[in-house]
Design brief:
alpha+beta; GIY-YIG endonuclease; 2 domains; three-stranded antiparallel β-sheet; three-stranded mixed β-sheet; 4 helices; about 20% helix; globular
Length: about 150
């Protein structure tokens, strides 16, 4: 299993998205899961995007650190960037570490809903648990994230 840090570029307007992807094949057809990049893929079609692998890591933490280094607040305010959230997973590592100590068959948690880490708005999956960050305030006080409806 690999963790890639990739850059997906829209060949029509040169807008880009930088992300992390867990995969067994670094050259798979995955293009990104951010809201804006998914909207753009739907609008322009997959053929309009080119993905470049920037880095390959063996460990998730290394990939997220690199993504956080690349996707900065300054980059995100650029009109050329599809990223809406700061790079890197900023969730509670202590909680994830605790989850790793529980045998998966004994885990009862399927959904974890929180809203405090503003720059990590969205959904993430770890050990078959869906983590929903529904923080309303975005990276800046006036930047409000949309309401989320979660069907459980």
């Amino acid at each position: 299993m690999f963790y890639t840090v990739y850059k997906t570029i829209n060949i029509h307007n040169q807008k880009f998205y930088i992300g992390v992807h867990k995969t067994i094949d670094p050259n798979d057809d995955y293009l990104g899961s951010g809201k804006l990049i998914k909207f753009a893929i739907k609008k322009y079609g997959k053929a309009s995007f080119k993905k470049t692998i920037l880095f390959i890591f063996d460990h998730r933490e290394e990939a997220y650190l690199k993504e956080r280094e690349l996707v900065t607040p300054e980059l995100m305010i650029s009109d050329a960037c599809y990223n809406l959230a700061r790079g890197g997973n900023v969730g509670c590592e202590a909680f994830r570490t605790a989850l790793d100590t529980i045998p998966q068959k004994e885990q009862r948690v399927k959904h974890w809903i929180h809203g405090h880490i503003h720059e990590s708005y969205g959904i993430d999956f770890y050990n078959a648990i869906a983590f929903y960050n529904v923080a309303r305030a975005g990276r800046m006080a006036y930047n409000m994230n949309p309401y989320e409806v979660i069907d459980l």
